[in-house]
Design brief:
The complex is a heterodimer of chains A (333) and B (234).
Chain A (H helix, E strand, L loop, with lengths): L1 H35 L6 H18 L3 H5 L3 H30 L4 H23 L14 E4 L10 E4 H23 L1 H11 L1 H6 L4 H26 L6 H16 L4 H19 L3 H10 L20 H12 L11
Antiparallel strand pairs in A: 1-2
Helix pairs in contact in A: 1-6, 1-9, 1-10, 1-11, 2-4, 2-5, 2-9, 2-10, 4-5, 4-9, 6-7, 6-9, 7-9, 10-11, 10-13
Chain B lengths: L3 E10 L2 E11 L4 E5 L6 H8 L5 E8 L2 E2 L5 H6 L2 E4 L11 H8 L8 H10 L1 H5 L10 H13 L5 E5 L7 H16 L3 E5 L3 H7 L2 E6 L2 E6 L1 H6 L1 H7 L3
Parallel strand pairs in B: 3-8, 3-9, 6-7, 7-8
Antiparallel strand pairs in B: 1-2, 1-4, 4-5, 9-10
Helix pairs in contact in B: 3-6
The chains are: A mainly alpha (333), B alpha/beta (234).
Chain lengths: 333, 234
């Protein structure tokens, strides 16, 4: 029983945590692709930037969180989301819009986004240094240990406060996005433009507004993902670099252009990653007592932790071979 | 005053002109049909009117208002609806969502217009929750026309509405076009099925090499032996 709880804590919960982060990033990437038809490489840096904005706000107003009973960084997150949304719209106006108006090929847009990545990374390092920062400045990270009603279970299910907030926020964001895309006039226009941009134009849909809304959603979700990830672990300027590949893998696995696919893809990549690096020795130890000849090594994982970053590659390969359009049929919202 | 009037329009892609002086005019009570051989500039004329390509010379007027080279979204606001020949529905969206997208520029309650579109195309009412991509070619054409009608346009531009349809659907589409016209919407359409289309046309325009070759009532064009020989297959 304890082994099972250990497995659940380290694979299911941790996998779902990182999966939620990937999902939030992948939804943004997939929305931008669906509307603007290019892979936005600077997305992960928007996540880091958003998290840094939260760090600044948290440092400025450290007393806000304790007054409400939530981490200050989480309380500040909506403010930073608005700011990041504005920055995303600004980046589009400054860099991508002009290219779009000149009808450049998508690969030029991709290259431009790589340029934006480098600029954002430089900016973040310039402002905040290269060190590791914690978003918990004045408050402490709460950890919930949940007792299980089984006699054989002496271990607890462990969920931390930021993880719980992450799950709640993701659920809220997904429901809100679903309602927006399916019920609101602008959300439907977004789906229409992703489906058939020329027809959207002849229908009188204002494509500039749709593009703006896309950046607002992508930017604010990126900020939330960056903040919630940094709350769970720590905030580093190279956070984005480590997360970019899994996010794109998640978007492609789910089917590029499909937000529900991105959600599923995020969890597939996150859970596979944690499952692949999980150390089975602990779970299999009882077998060692039963079979005396069995000698388990200290670590018994499918993939050594250091090679974790390769896993999204393999998932990507598998999907591209067996289901090239992704789990959900891609290319449309 | 004519509903739409094109005076000597020259237009094309890049430096190449496809239209070399097209003239046409129709009233709001009329159906105008543009026919002609492949490459004559039929679809190009519609695209030029709807601001989808640049008009280099000449002018286009909607009820006397100069609309030359206005962008499509502005023309939708001015009361024009355009149905492209291909890719004319949002395949992933339901029939009703397609119609709602047609009404995107409307801020008022347009539910009565949904009902009116369903009364023009009763088939669509049963299918309104179905994705447009699952419909047959004829039904898609109805969705496309319905979408363009949602803004209650004064002029409807149709680019080969019966292309690739079975004769049964073709007749049905023509009947609907007449019904739409009788409700007070001027129609200008390009058609490959020239004989059938001219039969319902108040005005016909036979284009060749980007110019008007014949301009007359639909019936006169059908009766003209030269038009019949050169453009209607005898």
């Amino acid at each position: 029983m304890n082994e099972f709880i250990f497995f659940f804590n380290s694979v299911v919960i941790n996998g779902a945590v990182i999966g939620s982060i990937y999902a939030m990033g992948a939804i943004g990437v997939t929305l931008v692709f669906g509307i603007l038809r290019f892979a936005h490489f600077a997305h992960a840096d928007m996540m880091t930037l958003g998290a840094f904005l939260v760090l600044i706000l948290t440092a400025l107003f450290p007393a806000v969180g304790p007054a409400i009973g939530l981490p200050t960084a989480f309380v500040m997150m909506p403010v930073a989301m608005v700011a990041t949304a504005f920055i995303a719209v600004g980046i589009d106006k400054l860099f991508y819009k002009k290219l779009r108006e000149n009808n450049v090929k998508p690969v030029v847009m991709v290259m431009a986004s790589v340029g934006v990545t480098l600029m954002l990374q430089g900016l973040i390092r310039f402002l905040a240094g290269t060190g590791t920062q914690s978003l918990y400045i004045d408050d402490r990270k709460a950890i919930f240990r949940i007792d299980l009603p089984f006699e054989s279970a002496s271990r607890n299910l462990v969920v931390t406060e930021p993880q719980l907030l992450l799950f709640l926020f993701l659920a809220f964001a997904v429901i809100a996005l679903h309602l927006f895309l399916n019920k609101s006039r602008l959300g439907k226009a977004m789906r229409a433009m992703s489906d058939n941009p020329d027809l959207a134009k002849v229908s009188g849909i204002n494509t500039n507004t749709v593009v703006g809304v896309t950046w607002i959603i992508a930017g604010s979700l990126a900020c939330a993902a960056g903040t919630l990830l940094s709350l769970d672990v720590t905030l580093k300027p190279d956070l984005s670099f480590m997360i970019l590949l899994p996010i794109f893998a998640a978007a492609i696995v789910g089917g590029v252009g499909s937000p529900y696919g991105a959600l599923a893809g995020g969890f597939v990549v996150g859970l596979t990653e944690t499952l692949a690096v999980f150390n089975w020795t602990f779970v299999l130890r009882p077998l060692e007592q039963a079979i005396p000849s069995l000698d388990l090594p200290n670590t018994l994982a499918f993939v050594p932790t250091e090679y974790k970053i390769t896993i999204p590659f393999f998932i990507l390969l598998a999907i591209l071979i067996w289901r090239p359009t992704g789990l959900f049929k891609g290319k449309i919202l | 005053m004519a509903l739409i009037e094109c005076k000597n329009i020259h237009a094309g892609y890049g430096g190449m002109n496809i239209l070399n002086g097209v003239n046409m005019s129709i009233e709001s009570s009329e159906i105008g049909v543009i026919v002609g051989p492949n490459g004559a500039g039929k679809s190009t004329t519609l695209k030029a009117i709807f601001g989808l390509l640049n008009v280099g010379e000449g002018s286009i007027e909607l009820r006397g208002d100069n609309i030359t080279n206005l962008s499509p979204d502005k023309l939708v606001h001015k009361g024009m609806g355009f149905v492209p020949q291909e890719h004319n529905v949002f395949v992933s969206m339901t029939v009703e969502e397609n119609l709602e997208m047609g009404a995107f520029i409307r801020r008022d309650d347009f539910s009565y217009m949904l009902e009116r579109v369903y009364s023009f195309f009763p088939d669509l009412k049963d299918k309104r929750r179905q994705p447009a991509g699952e419909l047959s070619g004829g039904q898609r054409q109805m969705v496309a026309m319905g979408r363009a009608l949602m803004v209650e346009p004064s002029l409807l531009l149709l680019d080969e509405p019966t292309a690739g349809l079975s004769p049964m659907y073709m007749n049905e589409i023509f009947e609907r076009v007449i019904a739409v016209n009788e409700s007070g919407v001027g129609v200008l359409m390009v058609e490959q099925n020239a004989k059938q289309a001219l039969r319902i046309a108040h005005k016909g325009f036979v284009l060749a090499a980007g110019k008007n070759r014949f301009t007359d009532t639909g019936q006169n064009l059908l009766n003209d032996p030269e038009v019949a020989k050169s453009f209607l297959g005898g």
